[in-house]
Write a structure and sequence with these properties.
- It is built from eleven helices and eleven strands.
- It has 314 residues and is of the alpha/beta class.
- The strands form three sheets. It has a five-stranded parallel sheet with strand order 9-8-7-10-11. Strands 4-3-5-6 form a four-stranded parallel sheet, sandwiched between helices. It has a two-stranded antiparallel ribbon with strand order 1-2.
- The N and C termini lie close together (11 Å).
C-alpha cells in the first residue's frame, strides 16, 4: 500500500500509537496486488469467524457521513464493533463543519480522538484535504469519483463464486460512475478483465485493461459476472433525472441479457436497486445473483482493511 508521511505529528490522546508512516485508503490503488490478495484472504477468515479478532479493542473509529447511507453505515458500524472498537458516527449536522470550520481543523480534532477516520462525501477534494492533514489513516467510504470499499466487497464476492479472480470476465452495464471506476482500478491488479457498456456521455474514461463499448450485448457476451448500478445517483443533478433514464433505458440487466453471459454467470449490484430500471426484479431476487452476499461482504473486507491500516495486518 502507498505510504505517505504524517502531516500532523502531535500525539492523538488515548488512541494507541500508530506507525510513523500513514496508510490511507482513498482510491484503492494504494494496495499492491499482494496486499490485495492477502486482504481478501483475511476477509474470508473474518467472515468464517466474525468475532475472532479484537484488533480495535478500546479504539474509536470516526465515521463521518455527509451523505445518507444504509450499507456503508451498517457494515462499518457492525464491523468496528465486531473488532472490539467503538464506531463514532458523525453526520454533517453533528459537527462544526456546518458552521464553517475547516476540514483541516476537523482533521486535527478527529485525529486526536480516533484511530481511523472514515468519510462518505460527494467531494473527492474534501477527502484529499482530510487525508493531507490527518495524523491517522483515512478511509474513503464513498465519493463522487470513487467507491473503493465496494470494489473490495465485489472482488471478495467473485472469489467466493469462482474460487479465483485472475482471468475472470466482468461486464459492467450502465452509467460509468464511481463504482465502475473503482472496479477498474481495484480489479485490474487482481487480473480481472473489465468491460464497461455505457451510452455516449455516460461512459467511463479510458483506463488500462478496460474495454469500453456502447453495446451491452458485446460487454456481456461470455462474461462470468454482470454488474450494474442505479441510473440516478444521489450526487446527480436532479434536473438531469429524466434524461439519464432515457439515455440508459437500453442498459438494463434482465434474464435475456444475462443469458448472453457464460452459463455460470452471476448478477451483481452495489445497491440500492430500482427494480424495473437498471435491473429487473426477477434478476435482483432470483437464483442467478450474489447481490445480497455482495452487500454482506462489505463488512468483512472493511474489517480486514481496518486491521491492515491500524496494525499492518494483511
Amino acid at each position: 500500500m502507498h505510504q505517505v508521511p504524517g502531516q500532523h505529528p502531535q500525539p492523538h490522546g488515548a488512541q494507541r500509537t500508530l506507525p510513523s508512516l500513514l496508510r490511507h485508503f482513498l482510491t484503492g490503488t494504494e494496495l499492491t496486488p499482494d496486499e490485495l490478495r492477502r486482504l481478501l484472504e483475511r476477509a474470508d477468515e473474518l467472515k468464517a469467524a466474525p468475532l475472532s479478532s479484537d484488533a480495535l479493542h478500546r479504539r474509536t473509529i470516526a465515521l463521518v457521513f455527509q451523505a445518507p447511507s444504509t450499507r456503508t453505515r451498517t457494515s462499518f458500524e457492525a464491523g468496528v464493533t465486531e473488532l472490539g472498537g467503538h464506531p463514532m458516527v458523525l453526520r454533517t449536522e453533528d459537527t462544526q463543519l456546518t458552521r464553517g470550520e475547516s476540514i483541516r481543523d476537523t482533521a486535527y480534532i478527529l485525529s486526536r480522538n480516533a484511530a481511523v477516520i472514515g468519510i462518505r462525501t460527494p467531494s473527492d477534494e474534501l477527502v484529499q484535504d482530510l487525508a493531507a492533514h490527518a495524523s491517522v489513516p483515512v478511509i474513503n467510504m464513498l465519493t463522487g469519483r470513487h467507491h473503493p470499499c465496494q470494489a473490495l466487497a465485489d472482488l471478495m464476492t467473485l472469489r467466493e463464486a469462482f474460487g479465483q479472480l485472475r482471468g475472470l470476465k466482468l461486464a459492467y452495464v450502465g452509467d460509468g460512475n464511481n463504482v465502475a471506476r473503482s472496479l477498474a482500478l481495484v480489479g485490474a491488479p487482481a487480473g480481472i478483465e473489465l468491460r464497461v457498456a455505457a451510452p455516449d456521455g455516460y461512459q467511463l474514461e479510458p483506463l488500462p485493461g478496460v474495454l469500453l463499448t456502447d453495446d451491452p450485448r458485446e460487454a456481456v457476451a461470455g462474461a462470468d459476472a454482470v454488474y450494474t448500478d442505479v441510473w440516478v445517483s444521489i450526487s446527480d443533478d436532479p434536473t438531469t433525472t429524466e434524461g439519464r433514464r432515457t439515455a440508459l433505458a437500453g442498459y438494463r440487466i434482465d434474464d435475456a441479457l444475462l443469458d448472453l453471459a457464460a452459463p455460470h454467470a452471476i448478477a451483481l449490484h452495489c445497491l440500492p436497486a430500482h427494480p424495473g430500471e437498471e435491473i429487473t426484479a426477477e434478476v435482483l431476487y432470483g437464483s442467478r445473483q450474489r447481490i445480497w452476499d455482495q452487500a454482506e461482504n462489505r463488512r468483512h473486507v472493511q474489517k480486514a482493511l481496518l486491521e491492515l491500516l491500524v496494525d499492518g495486518r494483511s
